[in-house]
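Hi! If you just cloned this repository, the fastest way to understand the data is to look at a raw example. We've pasted two of them here, unedited. The first protein comes first, obviously.
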Amino acid sequence: MDLNYDFEMQSIFPKAVWLVPECKELLDGQGIAHNMKGNYVAAFIDPATAVALWRESSELRSTIIKADWSALPYEGEADAGKAHFLIPKLMEIHAKAASGAYGAEAVRYAVYDLLLFTRKLTMGEILDANGKPTCSDLTRQRMSNARPASKFDANKAVMAMASDPRNHPARETTTVQASPAKPTEAGPGLFGRAARIFGRKTN
């Protein structure tokens, strides 16, 4: 039986952080919105697909991640742990900005550093001492219980994504403000081509 390669768009900063007035003010000031393209990455719906991917080489996972595909399964807004981590961090930046301890440039870099760190967390790039991805308890449990029916097939993954119109991300309406740090460029490859199919840049 083939793996399920359907995906959804996983948020990096969860919606809950915009419910805190100080966090909303801070993020709005940096041009970061919950529904902006830069706040989302693609994630496989079925945790078994993610588990199968983790059984493959680190080079394959790296290629997928560079093409804006998460190595962790989609969890939507179901886990509150990310918001609980982010809100105090954003509140601290907001307080330093309000007190004058941070100037405009320092605020901008602090916010985008946090965004980039959280993006790596969402992508499954941050590993523990055992080489396992740092993730929520919910995701860890779902992956632990998953039993892949077959090996991860990159060609089938790309074909499934390209052929299913339901999986095409909606066209974005929010303008994304550029990050002060230049993102790392992704090399050409199978998933790089898949990203171009869906209109997402890999650099």
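Ok, and the second one:
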Amino acid sequence: MAGESTRSLELTTTPKHNILPMLKYCLIFCLSICFALTATAQQQPATWKGFQRVNFSIDGHSAYYVKPNKPLQGNPWVWRSSFADWHTDADSILLTRGMYVAYIDVDNQYGSPQAMQVWDKFYAYLLKNAAFSTKPSLEAVSRGALYAYAWAKRNPDKVSCIYGETPVCDIKSWPGGKGAGMGDTASWKQFKQVFGFTEEQAIAFKDNPVDNLEGLAAFHVPLLHYISNADKLVPVAENSNILVKNYRALGGETTEKVIDKQPQELFGHHFIIEHPEDIADFLMNNVYPVKSVFSYSNYFNKRNGLSNFLYKAAKLKTATVAFLGGSITFNPGWRNKVMSYLQETYPETKFKFIMAGIPSLGSLPHVFRLQRDVLDSGKVDLLFLEAAVNDRVNGTDSITQVRDLEGIVRHVKKANPSADIVLMEFADPDKTKDYASGITPVEIINHEKVAAYYGLPSINIAKEVHDKLANKEFDWDKDFKDLHPAAFGQELYFANIKTLLQQCAEEPVSKIKLKPLPKMLNKGSFVNGRYLAITNAKHDANWSIDPNWVPKDGLDTRPGFVHVPVLQADRAGAELTLKFTGRAIGMAIVSGGDAGIVSYTIDGKPYKNINLYTQWSGFLHLPWYLLFDGDLKPGAHILKLKITSSHDPKSKGTACRIVNFLNSK
């Protein structure tokens, strides 16, 4: 078999069907050989087929890498996921060509989250200590596919290609044996123990290699599977065929090569590979030449780190994490991946997640809705905050941005002095154009100003996207596609956040550290931003409160701004009065196709008009936040507001629909 032994890869197989006694004795004999080999594994010399082998361990798991005599530039490498001594001819070829070969033993973990933590550490070790390239080729033999695909789907940005040989792609097939496959009773039991699953949970498992392939397809990771139609242990119809079908449906590049030539062993699961150089070509051509990529570390600043949150997650075993942002935070993607990553990294920790993303909202809405949408749900230990995209789109001025962001930081810190906060600056075409013109976007300047002043970590993905586009690492139209990122962008956002979390976790944490807040950057910052209920307003008969407002014109709505109480009027001359205390006053409205123009005065000053109609109002009842004044003197004030008889030329009416008043003391 291409110079290799035919030792069984599935030595623990216990088929669900009866097997002839002679086959049973053969399997027992193979098991004896396996145990003998395992017992002598630690006595192996530090060479492998004439190449130097470097042995070490990660968290008690034996690991090694094999060095080529003349490494290629950039140190490309192939990562074997299981059965390191099976069909190694392709590895030998790669070593002679200048590629490294690496392996870590996490057998009997079935690609579990625990195994993925070890894989992450192994990967980081090789990059840091051996200067390996950032995107290895992966080899996945049999059950090794459970590991390779689990890690690749968590890290599609770090994989050049995947070679699978008779790959296990669905645990229901193997070891579950729930279909045409023979299954393995002992391994199925072990799988459930490793994952902590009941029988029902194991069958319902939705992160098999066949599942959730969007990220790999988005990063254009090519796949090559060698399979046998005679395979009764891991039937291709339940495994590779399904994965290939799913991947191609997502636009992924994949090839299945059928090896039906005899002889075949272990119920068709083992076969001869006559041309291992074809596999070597695939693994090498997709990883070399090594492409230059910009490191994620270039685009975030740890500053004072996240030690308080990490202490709570690692030591106290309980933590609350909140996500405050617009549609990029609301939509599934990076946020879900961060949540999964935290749960996998700290499996014994009880996490509470607060999802406070609402499309279209930037820093001004955030600072006034923070109390209700975030802090009223619990004491926050880690806050992810993003506003840079919508602050540009919504036209929020520079001073207000600083007041908003600082107000959020101080409000969160007041509620929980040990809270950690990450400011995230996401990408959009306008920011890319600014950077291309040598201009740092004002939203980025303000996010960084507040983050630096308070020692908070920040991530400038807007700059990263510009730089990586210029470096031809990806294409905006084909990969990122929109300021609401496609799968590629979501993976990129998550990869940055994950890298920040990992690097912060490298620093020792021994206790909660509290630091007094410095004096305010801007004395007018909205540090006590809050909503005032619409019931506080006194109004004439033209106004009414709809306790469960729903639009009647068929236009779209945003979460949190439909099926809520709304104070509304649509007749010119309708008036209301609001008494309040504090330094800031405004209102949060829904602006639809009939939005009008209102006129307001504070404390008897001259009336000012505001057009409630926006560029989006023709197709959406947009949540729209309007700040009447943010520089009032402390104390009591009176707001008077009335609907004028005029309206925007594009509007169909003179309506005003108020969801909340905005106030900061």
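That's it. A detail worth noticing about the second one: The first helix runs from residue 21 to 39.
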